[in-house]
Design brief:
Layout (H helix, E strand, L loop, with lengths): L1 H47 L3 E8 L6 E10 L5 E10 L17 H6 L5 E3 L16 E4 L6 E8 L11 H8 L4 E8 L6 E8 L1 E3 L3
Parallel strand pairs: 1-9
Antiparallel strand pairs: 1-2, 2-6, 3-5, 3-7, 4-6, 7-8
Length: 207
């Protein structure tokens, strides 16, 4: 009788252990499923809130060689503000100008800032830009009405190492090509958004 009781006790212990393991596994699967659902929901929400911008560039007739870029955060519904927006000018597409190395006397820092394209930011507007390629990060708010920015552009010039290339030749080579932009947006609680490359053409001001 004692042996039978001992065996029954052992079986009960084993059953309890199996039930506990099963509960752990069930809880683990439930947590895993909940995590996947939460990740899908975050990604869906992130996609829904992808910032929308209107970007226009205008060159005045009276000031050739300079232009204005107007950037406006227009949506989507539910996105009232962004903590940080940074706009970067990219090189023209389809060519690797540094593929064979840098010209003699050209440092990597100089090469990184040289824009292969028609326009760059005007560094005289130092409050708005950190260099000729990149704006300073700043917030945009549709609630306050400061959901826009006006940035100053200037035409690029040939690199100092391009012997025999005049400014007129450089302008003819790049005239009519778009500015290629990358807009980086950040909002607390979300992964950053990278919008671009965006091809924006500079239009002549009709006035």
């Amino acid at each position: 009788m004692n042996v039978a009781i001992a065996v029954l006790g052992l079986l009960a212990t084993i059953a309890a252990a199996v039930a506990t393991v099963g509960s752990w596994r069930t809880a683990g699967k439930a947590n895993e499923t909940a995590g996947k659902v939460a990740a899908i929901e975050r990604q869906r929400r992130h996609s829904e809130l992808t910032p929308q911008f209107q970007v226009t560039c205008t060159e005045p007739k009276t000031g050739p060689g300079s232009a204005g870029m107007h950037v406006t955060l227009t949506g989507p519904a539910g996105l009232d503000h962004l903590d940080e927006v940074t706009i970067s000018i990219l090189d023209e597409t389809g060519q690797d100008h540094w593929g064979h190395g840098l010209p003699q006397g050209v440092a990597s820092e100089e090469a990184a800032l040289f824009v292969w394209g028609p326009w760059e930011f005007n560094t005289a507007a130092s409050a708005q830009v950190s260099d000729n390629r990149t704006t300073r990060a700043r917030s945009y708010s549709r609630v306050s009405g400061k959901n826009w920015d006006h940035l100053s552009l200037q035409r690029t010039r040939p690199g100092r190492w391009m012997t025999g290339m005049s400014s007129a030749q450089w302008e003819r080579q790049h005239g009519g090509k778009p500015i290629r932009l990358l807009i980086t947006c950040r909002l607390a609680g979300y992964d950053q958004w990278l919008l671009g490359p965006l091809d924006i053409y500079v239009e002549q001001d009709p006035n």
